[in-house]
Amino acid sequence: MFTAVHGKRIQMQKGDVILTPSWNWHDHGKDGSGPMIWLDGLDLPNFRHFPVHFVEHFEQSRYPAENADTSASPIVFPWARMKAQLDQEQGNWTTQRYLKEDGSEVSRILGGCAERLNTSTSSPARRETTSAVYHVITGSGTSQVGDQTLTWKTGDTFCIPSWYKYQHFANEGETVYFYRFDDKPMITALGFYRTEEMDVESLVSA
Q: Where are the alpha helices (DSSP H) in 40-109?
């Protein structure tokens, strides 16, 4: 499986995160047999709202592309590297944001992170003004989202609406790894980011 971004053909491995920046020709393809599924994290609601969403098709079936060395590419985040970072952290639950080399979010609108949850443990209960989509890379368990209990396993995808309290619980026998993308960069830039435990008095201007 590959993603081609403006002439660079990037081989995709399970769990990798690959960015397709605006105004770059891109397409997807697969060599060999058998199905493969990937998850797109899109900010289409914003583009439709303003509205600035449109599609331009290349004059040929594919934009010309060559295999690229992506070991140091700023738009490729290998899962092997992210998993190693998560596994170095102490505690039953940990999270790591996907960030550019300068420490900024990968996009001004959408951001992403990965989480590790050890077997038979739970994440902290959280409530925030971002909305998020979770994808289960490995493992199984449940999530309490508001007054609903969601049951999930490897390959499942579920969402957390804004300001819903949520908490994840891992089943016994396997470490859970999540991929998550959210609108935290946009919400933060607009000044709307809040968490339940935040001291709102600190936000008041004198």
A: 44-49, 79-88
Does residue 131 contact residue 162 with C-beta atoms inside 8 Å? yes
List of residues 6+ apart from 16 with CB closer than 8 A: 76, 77, 78, 79
- For 142, other C-beta atoms within 10 Å of its C-beta total 15
Q: Which domains does the chain have, with CATH numbers?
A: 1-77 (no CATH), 78-198 (2.60.120.10)
Joined together, the tokens standing for residue 171 give: 């089943």
> How many Å separate Cα 124 from the centre of its chain?
19
Burial 57-67 (b: 16+ CB within 10 A, else e): eeeeeebebee
**H or E, element range at 113:** strand 111-117
- Model confidence at 206: pLDDT above 70: no
What is the predicted pLDDT for the residue at 160? Answer: 98
> What spatial distance separates the first Cα and last Cα of the chain, rounded to whole Å?
55
pLDDT score of 54: 77
H helices of the chain, in order, are 44-49, 79-88, 184-189
Residue 200 has pLDDT above 80, yes or no: no
**3-state class of 21 per DSSP?**
coil
Contact 26, 2 (CB under 8 A): no
Residue-wise pLDDT for 156-194, tens only, equals 999 999 999 999 999 999 999 999 999 999 999 999 999
Q: What is the pTM of this model?
A: 0.92
